[in-house]
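Lecture 7, part B: from sequences to assemblies.

Below are the input chains for today's worked example.
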Amino acid sequence: MTSELALEFARKIRAREQAVGYWAVLDAPVATERIGRLGYDYVALDAQHGLLGYSGVLNGLMAIDAGHTAVGMVRVEDNNLTAIGKALDAGAVGVIVPLVNTAADAAAAVAAAKYPPMGGRSYGPMRSALRIGPVPAEANATTLVFAMIETPDGLANVKEICATPGLDGIYVGPSDLAIAVGGAFPGDPAIETEFNAALKTVAEAAASAGIAAGIHTPAGEVAALRLSQGYTFTTIASDLTHLEQIAKAHLAAATAAVTTKD
Amino acid sequence: MTSELALEFARKIRAREQAVGYWAVLDAPVATERIGRLGYDYVALDAQHGLLGYSGVLNGLMAIDAGHTAVGMVRVEDNNLTAIGKALDAGAVGVIVPLVNTAADAAAAVAAAKYPPMGGRSYGPMRSALRIGPVPAEANATTLVFAMIETPDGLANVKEICATPGLDGIYVGPSDLAIAVGGAFPGDPAIETEFNAALKTVAEAAASAGIAAGIHTPAGEVAALRLSQGYTFTTIASDLTHLEQIAKAHLAAATAAVTTKD
Amino acid sequence: MTSELALEFARKIRAREQAVGYWAVLDAPVATERIGRLGYDYVALDAQHGLLGYSGVLNGLMAIDAGHTAVGMVRVEDNNLTAIGKALDAGAVGVIVPLVNTAADAAAAVAAAKYPPMGGRSYGPMRSALRIGPVPAEANATTLVFAMIETPDGLANVKEICATPGLDGIYVGPSDLAIAVGGAFPGDPAIETEFNAALKTVAEAAASAGIAAGIHTPAGEVAALRLSQGYTFTTIASDLTHLEQIAKAHLAAATAAVTTKD
Amino acid sequence: MTSELALEFARKIRAREQAVGYWAVLDAPVATERIGRLGYDYVALDAQHGLLGYSGVLNGLMAIDAGHTAVGMVRVEDNNLTAIGKALDAGAVGVIVPLVNTAADAAAAVAAAKYPPMGGRSYGPMRSALRIGPVPAEANATTLVFAMIETPDGLANVKEICATPGLDGIYVGPSDLAIAVGGAFPGDPAIETEFNAALKTVAEAAASAGIAAGIHTPAGEVAALRLSQGYTFTTIASDLTHLEQIAKAHLAAATAAVTTKD
Amino acid sequence: MTSELALEFARKIRAREQAVGYWAVLDAPVATERIGRLGYDYVALDAQHGLLGYSGVLNGLMAIDAGHTAVGMVRVEDNNLTAIGKALDAGAVGVIVPLVNTAADAAAAVAAAKYPPMGGRSYGPMRSALRIGPVPAEANATTLVFAMIETPDGLANVKEICATPGLDGIYVGPSDLAIAVGGAFPGDPAIETEFNAALKTVAEAAASAGIAAGIHTPAGEVAALRLSQGYTFTTIASDLTHLEQIAKAHLAAATAAVTTKD
Amino acid sequence: MTSELALEFARKIRAREQAVGYWAVLDAPVATERIGRLGYDYVALDAQHGLLGYSGVLNGLMAIDAGHTAVGMVRVEDNNLTAIGKALDAGAVGVIVPLVNTAADAAAAVAAAKYPPMGGRSYGPMRSALRIGPVPAEANATTLVFAMIETPDGLANVKEICATPGLDGIYVGPSDLAIAVGGAFPGDPAIETEFNAALKTVAEAAASAGIAAGIHTPAGEVAALRLSQGYTFTTIASDLTHLEQIAKAHLAAATAAVTTKD
Ligand SMILES: [Mg+2]
Ligand SMILES: [Mg+2]
Ligand SMILES: [Mg+2]
Ligand SMILES: [Mg+2]
Ligand SMILES: [Mg+2]
Ligand SMILES: [Mg+2]
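Predicted structure of the full complex, as C-alpha cells:
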C-alpha cells in the first residue's frame, strides 16, 4: 500500500473523521480486491473468526493494496506480540484487537504494535517495509491500534481503556456486547435498552478521550445509524453472510417460476 | 455426494424437469458450502473463467457435498479427456463443456466423459468412487454432459449438436452468444431481437431432441424468465459479481450518512 | 455437519456409550473423507502434532462432513481461546485439549470452548453456524471438551480435572503418559505395570465423575482392549503411520520375487 | 534428487532389471516422503487420476528426493509438451504417459520428453537442473519415457509402440485394459483368460523390443506375480486405497468390542 | 492493474519504444511485488517452465498490480484458448506464447487472446474486468500477444510470423534458439556466429513488420547489449537463478573467514 | 534430513566450531532447496517475521533436506510449547527463539524443545521421526536451542541466559539490538560504539559459558567480520532482500541503454 493512503487514513481516524469499511472473512483475494475498489475507506480481514490463515491475511492485504483505494486492516486472533506483529509485517495499516478487558490489555496491544521505545515489536518489516522507512519510531506513527469492547469487563473499564497511551480507538463487537449486557443472542430485543446504553457509553468514552469509536455492523443502514450516533467508523459485514443473503434472494426470485413436469 | 442426490438430479434433468443452480467462480469452499445449502439444485464451479485451479474444484465439490442438498457440476476449461476426466474424478455430477461448435465437438465431450464402450474415459475414480460402484458402464448413467452453445458455429449447428448420442443437454453462454449474433458487448440492446431469436432456436432444438436446455443468467429474475421461455435449467451467477453488487449497495446505504468533520 | 449427527454424538459421549474414532495427521481431505465414511463415530484431526495448519483443519472438517457419517473433532495445538475458538468455528464438534495439568487448565479449556455465561468464547460462528442456531447458550450444549491426561501433574490431578464443570471427558495420550510414569519411550515394557495402573486410575476417575474416558491407540486390537478396560471412546491412529505400515508390508510381499538380471 | 540415484535407476530399467514402486495419488508430501524411504525403487505420482495439481507434483517430487532412496516418476495427465515438460522440469526421472494408442502417440511422448535434436522439449530446467548438467542432449539420457497400454488400439499396436525410438518401456493400466478386452469392470472374472493373454502379449512385445515392461498392481502379492510373469517393474497402489483398507480393518478389529450401554 | 499503466505499456510496445522487464519463476508473490516496484516496465511470470501453477499466476499478477509501477505479463504454458484465456482473465496485460513455429501458430495465439470478431476468446473477465470496460473489442486493444521464436521452424518462418495480423511482437527464447541453430547447450561458443546471425534475423524481421522484438536475457548487461542491437524489449531472468547467484556469492565472502577449531 | 547431517551439525555447534547459514523468509521451497545445496551449513526459516505459515515451514524443511547438504533451522514465532514443538516436529534441527529477556525465558525455550524429563515437549514426532529413534531422551541430544539477544533486558541478562541448562547458544538480532542500545534505526551510526560493545558483551558471555554465539548479518562480508570477532555462527540474510538487491542492480545495468524513441 502506498504511504499516502495509509497516512491519510491514519490522519482521518485520529481526527475522528468518519470512515466506512468492509469486513472480509473469506480467503478469496480477488473478491477482496474488488470490494476494496468500491470506495470503502478500509477493508478489515478477520483473522480471529474469519476463514483466513496467515496466507489468507497476506494475500488479502496484497489484494486490497492492488485496488489502490482502500487500506487494509486486520482483526487479529490474539492480543500478543506474534499475532499483532505478523499482521503488521504483512502490511496491515492497523489492528483490531479482540477481547480487551482492561487498560492493561489495551496497553499490551499497543506495546505489541509499536517499536521501541513505545512498545516491544520486533523489527523485521516484510510488506510493511514497502510503506515505512527505516526508522521504526516513524513507522509507529502510521500504525493504528484499536481495542475491542465486547465483554462485561471491557464495558466496565472502557474509560480506562480509552485512556491508554498510543491507542487510536476502540471497536465494538456488537454480538458479544449484546451477550455481555445480558442478551440471549446477538440482536436479542429483550436487552435493546441495555445494549443501546452500552453503545452510548462506549461512544462517549471514546469522544471524551479524543480517540475514534468504531463498531461492526451487519448492513449499510445500520452503519449509517451508528455514524449518526457518534461512531467514527463502522465496518459492514461480512462477505460470507452477504453472499449467502444475495444468493438466497436470487433463488427466491428464480424459483417462483420453477414448475415440476407432470 | 450421495448417490441418491446424483441419481435424482440426473433423472430430473433427463426428464426435462426444471432446475435452478448457482455459479461459483471463487475458490472459497465455505462460501460454496453455504450457497449449496440454500436450496439450489446444483452449484456449478467454473474452471474455465473462474478463479479455480484443480484444488479449488476439488475442495469446491467437497464443500457442495458437505451441504448434502445440491449436486456439484463443473464448467470445464477445455473439451478434452484431461479436463473432463479430472472434473468427474473429483466428484462432479456433470460437466458443462465450453465452445462446442459442431456435433463432432459434442461427441468428443461425451466420449471424454463416458467410460468404454460409450467413450474413452480412463478408469481411475477418486471422489467419484464414493458414488459409483465398480462397473464403469453404470457410472456412465449418472454422468451428465452439457455442450455450450455460444459461438456462431455452435448456433448454426445446434440441431446436430443436440442429436449427439449421450449428450444430456445444451447450455447457453449468453455473453458470448450476444457477441456471436453481432452484439458489441454482452447485453447489447442493438441485437436484442437476434439474441432472443437465438435463445428460442436453442431452446427449441433441445426440446425437439428431448434433451435439456440450460442457460446462464445474472439474476433470479432473468432465471425465472428463461424458465418461462422453455429453458430446463438456469444457473444464476456469479458469487464474485453478486458479492461486488451487495457490497456496493451497502456502501451506498452507509455513506449517505458519512460527513467530514470541519 | 448436520445437527443430528452432532447431537447424537454428544448424547452418546455424555451417556458414556462406547465410540471409536480415527486419528488423522495428514492434510489430505479426500483421504479423510473416505475414512470418515467407513463407520467410525468420529475422525479427530490433530492440530498439535499433525501436519495440519488452519486450512488443513478447515478442509478436513468439511471432508468429514461430506461423508455424512462421522463427526469431526480437533486435537487443538494449545489450551487457549484462539486455538479452541478457531477449531470450533471451523465446525469441530469437540476439542481434545493437550497437556492439561490441573483443574484450572481444564476450566480454561471449558471456558475457551463455551459462550458466556458458561465461558468466554467470542461469538463469530463460521462453519459452526451451519449447525447451531443463533443462541450461543444452546450451541454450548453441542460442543464437547476433552482434557488430555498425559503428564505427571495431569495424572496426579485427574480427579480434580474430572470434576471440572462443563468438561465432557478426559483423553489419555499414551506416549506422553508412558514417559510421565517413568518410561524411557512410548511402550517401554519396563514400566508396563505403572502404565496400566495409570490407565486404570484415569478410567476410574472419569467413571466416578460420570464423564467419558477416551484414549489414543495405535491399532484396532488395542482399541478393543481399552474399551474392554472401561474406556468410553478410543481413537485409532494415525493415517500417516498406518500408511507407512501398509506400504511397507506390500513392499515385503512384492520384493520376495524381485531378482537381479544376471 | 541426486544424479546417482537417477542414473542408476535409468540403467536398471534399461537393463530390464526388476524394480518395484509405489503409487501415490494423495497430495500429502510427508506421507510420500516416508513411503519413499521404505526401500521402493521409485514412487510414481499420479497427475492423471490422482489428487495432485501442479504444486502437489512439485512438492511430492521434493518429498521423494528428501528421502534419498527412491526416485520420483510422474504419470502425466496428457500426452503433450506441456504436461510432460512440466513434470520433468519439476524433477521427475521419468514419465508414464497414458492412453497411448499408436506408435505415433508413443513418438509424441518421446518427443515431448527429450530435448532437440531427439525431441522438441523446451529448455528451462527448474528442479531438473539440480540433477542434469547444462547439456540438454545429456539430460535426455537420464529421462525415462513409458507408454501406457490400456486401450484396444494400444494393445493391437503394442509391437509398433515398443519399436518407438527413445521409448524406455511400456506400462499396463490393468483397469482400463480389463475393460479394453471386454470386461464389465476392472477384475471382471469373465474375461480373465483374455486379460491374461493380453498381459502376456504386452510383456512379450516389450521383451522382444528389449525395453522394460511395467504394470500397475493393487498389492504386493500381485506385484510379485507380475514380476514372475516377466514384467520388469510394477507399481503397487495406491496410498488412498491402501489407507482406506487399513483404516477399515482396524475399525473391524476395534468394533468387535464396542457395546452400547443399556 | 490500472488501465493507465496497461494502456501506456501497450502504446509503448506498439511504438517500438524500449522496455525492460524481469522474469519470475518463483511462486513468491511478496518477492514479485517488490521486484515490480523497482522500476521495471513489466514483470513476466513464467507459467511454462516456471514454478507457477494457476494460483501462482493469479497471485503473482495481483502482487505486480499492488506495486502500481510495472505491468504483468505471462509466458503461457501452451498455445491454446485455455492457457491464454486463463492468463488474460487473471489480469495479464500480455502473453508470451512459446514454440511458435509457423504463421498459423502465431495466428492461433492471436485468436486465443482476442475476443470476436478478431479471435475466439470466450468472454468471462475476472481480474481483467478491473481494467477493461464491458466492450470486448475494446479489451482487444489493450491485450498484447508475443510469439516466441526459439525453434528451427520458427526461425525459418520468422517473416511470416511477424506478418500475423494482431501480433504485437516476437520474443526470442535464447536457450532453445541456441540449440535450434546447432548448439550443444545454451551459450555454446561453437555456434556464436550462427546465434548472433539468428538474433539479427529476428530483430530485422520484427523491425520490417513494424512490431516489437523482445528477448530473454540472463543479466542486465546482456539486456543492454540486446537493446543496443535493435531489440525493443528484454526480460532479465530469473528470480530463481539470481537468488542462487547472490546466495552463492555471499557464502564465498563469508567462508573466507571460517576456520575449524583445533 | 539424515541423522548424520544433524548429528554433525549439533556436534559442530556445541564444539563452537564456525558455521555459516542462510536466512529464508520466502515460502519458495525450490529456491530454498537450491540455496541449501550451495554449501551453507544450515538454512534458517523465519517463522516470526518471514512470509512463512506452517506449510511454508514444513515444505521449506523438506526442501532443505532434499538438498542433503545443509540442515534446517527455524526462527520460531513465539517462545512457547506450540510454536517450538511444531517447528521441531516438522523436522527442524534447532530453533532460534526470539525476544528472550531473562534466564526464565531461556529456560522456557529449552523446556519447550526437550522431551521429559529435561523439558515438557509432547511426544508426536512427524518428520522429526525420520531422524530420531523412538527414545525421546535421545532425541533431545540432537535438538538445538538458541535464545535471541535483542532487547535491553536480554542484553542485561545475557550471562544468566547463557547459563541456562540445555541452551546451545545465543543469537543476536542486530536490528532490534541496535534499537535496544539507543539507536534510532538498524545500523544507526550514532550508536556504533554502544552496538559494538554489546556485540562484544554477547560474544564473551557465550564464550564464558562455553556455548555458541550466533548472529544475523545482511551480507557475507559482515558474516566474515562477525566470525573474526568471535561469533561461532552467522546467518546471511535474507532471500527477499537479496533478490531485491540483485534485481535492482540488473535493472540499473540494463537501463543505461534504454532510450525512448523520438
Ligand atoms: Mg527481533
Ligand atoms: Mg487409464
Ligand atoms: Mg468477539
Ligand atoms: Mg523455450
Ligand atoms: Mg464462453
Ligand atoms: Mg502429548
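Note for the exam: Residues D 122-124; E 98, 150, 173, 176 surround magnesium ion (ligand 4) (CB under 6 Å). Keep this in mind when comparing with the next example.
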